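Entry type: protein chain
Record version: 2
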Amino acid sequence: MVYENHKTESSSCGTSVSQKTTEGQDDLIRPKKLPNPILESHSHRGLHRELLVSHRWGLLPEEKPELQRVLEQRRLEQYREREQALKPPSDLEQELRKRRQKLMAYEQDELRRKEDLEKMPEFVRVRDNLRHITISGY
């Protein structure tokens, strides 16, 4: 019997101790949860709502990540280049290549002439211009 009384005393003691601690905690200021600035911004909430609605309606395209798209595009370009390198060039492509080479050579000649004219002294340029003028009085 003594043992049973001891049990009841310890249980009653335990409740009284817990009641005392809760009463003491009521006087303390409890910390509040800090607000999340991202979740509280109006633009973020609007964007999130728009994404949810468009997802429900199935308006979002099934897109791959940007990196994966770029890598696939590069692979396709490399594949096309390899295929073109294996094919013999057509007659049109050969003619276009020849014309491009002629234009490049012509542009290089023009650049050389301009550089030569800039390096040439002024009196030589004036003399060359005078040779081309015909005298109409004689």
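Comment: The first helix runs from residue 2 to 26.
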